[in-house]
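anyone seen this seq b4? input:
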Amino acid sequence: MAAIYGDLAGKVVLVTGGGSGIGEAIVRRFAEQNCKVAFIDIAREASEALADELAGKGHRVRFEHADLRDIAALRAAIARIAAALGPVEVLINNAAHDERHATPEVTPEYWDERIAVNLKHQFFAAQAVLPGMQEARQGVIVNFGSISWMIGQGGMAAYTACKSAVLGLTRSLARDYGPYNIRVNAIAPGWIMTQRQIDKWLTPEALRELEQRQCLKRKIMPDEVARFTVFLASEEASACTNQQYVVDGGWI
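predicted toks r here
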């Protein structure tokens, strides 16, 4: 049974990339906290099914369809969420896409697209919600990074560049907005067993590497990241800001 944090009840929470994977687990956990949960995703069918399921259980959940690479669409979606639910009080910048790419094949256009899908929207989502948080003199932003750049993972240089940049973005925002009692942290997941990861990369060889490198000799699941995310958004973590927290089963 996961912890319930009474201070989160009624809070307006926005999760990017909330339709599947870690984002879906985060949406579910915030819904269980009796938050007003909004999420943005490009995958309409799965996202609508999730929103309908949670609404059927009595939770207040709103799905907005948008391609986060389109900043105008992102801003419009956030404006609709604020109009329907109120100003965003907790922002979870989760959306990303870890597509592999060989360095010799990367074009300027592909590089820009990888930046757009993995980093750029985090800044502009924060920019959109920060005025409301400043007015309220409180708020929480959690940006999702990755351990990939910390372990020197190859085969996706644009992705690891973005994920290392998340820490710099996090620390800058935490410094600028701390005087308004706005906390900004990053979470760096390890290899989390989303369905995408299982389908694409969970080979016997990869599983042996996991068992060798992780301290915990088991798979780490999306809900384990979600539960930590909820904790970080709660007042139980009221003095935590300007930090990156690793959730990886002890890989690094």
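The chain has one domain: 8-193+222-246. The mean pLDDT is 97. kinda curious what u guys think
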